[in-house]
Design a protein that fits this description.
The protein has about 260 residues and is mostly helical. It has helices spanning about 5-15, 20-25, 25-40, 45-60, 70-80, 115-120, 125-140, 140-155, 170-185, 190-205, 210-225, 240-255; strands spanning about 85, 90, 95, 105, 110-115, 165, 165. The chain has 2 domains: about 1-40, no CATH class; about 45-255, no CATH class. It is about 60% helix and about 10% strand. β1 (about 85) and β2 (about 90) form a beta hairpin.
């Protein structure tokens, strides 16, 4: 029986390659793109972890990582003392990027990066709430799906295929391109809300202050009008004001 492709995967492929490309694309190229989308969606957890390892390393090389004696690293180590040391059975690896940008993200391999601009903006409770949110994206499988989409987008734009059952070794430029697409991609509204809820529950289970989820989102809302295009944290859906209200409602309800 011939292999068929799910409609959603084909739709994703067409969206990724763009309208201009479609004008000149022949049938064989369309088939290649469809295959890329299928391969991206079928990446194993091991593939995702390997690609995340390489992408995270590329981001670490590109950015200024705060040294161990930095005030940012010292503070982050204090903030995460009561936070998970493993996520989905993978060690959590926390580091700070020294930059004025306000952002944070986490990959499925446990790579968690917090920007010093975010740390300057937020108090410890607020920072912990954001970190719990990013951990939620990993624990709930959102980061895996985001890497799949980033891979499909990268490959559809001409990157050499680096996956064949087990992730192969990406070149530095490929890993960097993949990392940028991952970091700048947006989660869906339902994913953002679910990660907020995960953070709220995580903080509650560990008897940590949850009010920071409210005030933290309020601070992000005040900045969102002037957010840089590279900050996925500020370009949130739903808007930060709505997320703050949702967290306040849960606090008021005691649940």
């Amino acid at each position: 029986m011939p292999k068929t492709f799910p409609l959603a995967a084909i739709a994703l492929s067409l969206a990724l390659v763009g309208c201009e490309t479609m004008k000149t694309m022949d049938v064989s190229k369309l088939s290649d793109v469809g295959g890329t989308a299928m391969k991206a969606m079928s990446l194993s957890d091991g593939d995702i972890a390997t690609m995340s390892d390489q992408s995270c390393a590329a981001m670490d090389q590109k950015n200024q990582v705060a040294p161990a004696n930095s005030k940012y690293t010292v503070r982050l180590n204090q903030v995460i003392k009561s936070m998970p040391t493993t996520i989905n059975n993978r060690p959590a690896n926390y580091k700070v990027y020294v930059t004025k940008d306000v952002n944070a993200w986490a990959m499925a391999n446990g790579c968690i990066r917090v920007y010093s601009g975010l740390m300057d903006l937020m108090n410890d409770d607020e920072l912990r709430g954001v970190i719990g949110h990013e951990i939620g994206h990993v624990a709930l499988g959102h980061s895996k799906a985001r890497m799949q989409t980033a891979y499909a987008a990268s490959a559809a734009r001409g990157l050499a295929s680096a996956v064949g059952g087990v992730a192969g070794q990406l070149s530095q430029s490929q890993a960097g391109d993949l990392a940028e697409k991952f970091v700048n991609a947006q989660f869906s509204q339902s994913q953002e809300s679910a990660a907020d809820g995960y953070s709220f529950d995580l903080l509650g289970e560990r008897k940590l202050e949850r009010k920071g989820l409210v005030t933290g989102f309020q601070k992000l809302a005040s900045l969102s009008g002037g957010a840089s295009s590279g900050s996925s944290l500020l370009s949130s859906h739903p808007p930060s004001t709505e997320r703050a209200a949702a967290m306040q409602k849960r606090l008021d309800s005691g649940k």
